[in-house]
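Follow-up to my post from last week.
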Amino acid sequence: MNQDRIRIAIQKKGRLNNDSLTLLRCCGIKFRVQANDLYCFSENLPIDLLFVRDDDIPTLIADDICEFGIVGDNVLQEFELNNPTAKLTRLKALDFGQCRLSIAVPNNWSNNKLNSLNNKRIATSYPALLQQFLNKNNIEANIIRLSGSVEIAPQLDIADAICDLVSTGKTLEENNLRELVVVMQSQAQLIKNNKNLNQTQQDICDLLLRRINGVQKANESKYIMFHAPTNSLTEICNLLPGAETPTILPLEGYQDKMAVHAVASEGVFWVTLEKLKQAGASSILVMPIEKMLD
Ligand code: ATP
Ligand code: ZN
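User reply:
Got it. Predicted complex:
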């Protein structure tokens, strides 16, 4: 094993796979992945990727098979509750894989109070997180552990309610279930174990974090350009979301209009563009930003 490389565990197949690979590629890490590969080596940086089931990622890091991993908060917290001595650090929330762990009940459940769950059977793949939530709320229920297809448990009369991940709520709807309460919010996290990295590994880690910050900032920001009447420049520039110092340039052939270029750090919505137009701006262009470095 080459001690000067770092290993990152990512989900092999499933909801986090594509966004994890895209993020690493946006960070300038070059690699070629083939369908059944268990690992691959980056061609331009000392980084190896390991492709595994998401549930195995915290264990692989705690056991120091990999230094880093990308995994949902839900899997991570369930692991931490089951392994209280394992020390894993969240380095960065990654802004993808957003979902929530919720308790859902059949549509015909008549009581909306939490205590309606008392003495009921609740099916879940997250027994530790559910138990913690029930304890905090003084509810005694029977937890049924299932590793998949939790949403069909009430129809099969394996359980009365479920505790599962929800993003749009479509799966719940299709199974005649409705959300009763949110247990936790989750998103993908870059995680690491507590073992010290050597200097070379630390440098790669710093580079990776710097680039992830750059990618996140660029994703949140837009480059905006428009023409504005000279006499309403201040008013118009005040409408720009999160833009600190717009560049103002003369427009060839016009005395009363200027070109304004700015980085808007908070996303630019149609409402903002309409307000700019009302204030006299014209030829408005909004463009994505690929990379940003302070
Ligand atoms: P694996 O084969 O790796 O064990 P899986 O079936 O457990 O895959 P996926 O359904 O691909 O996992 O979900 C992976 C992660 O994606 C979840 O743990 C969660 O963090 C996140 N996620 C985001 N939205 C949802 C959603 N609607 N349902 C389930 N997971 C979601
Ligand atoms: Zn899984």
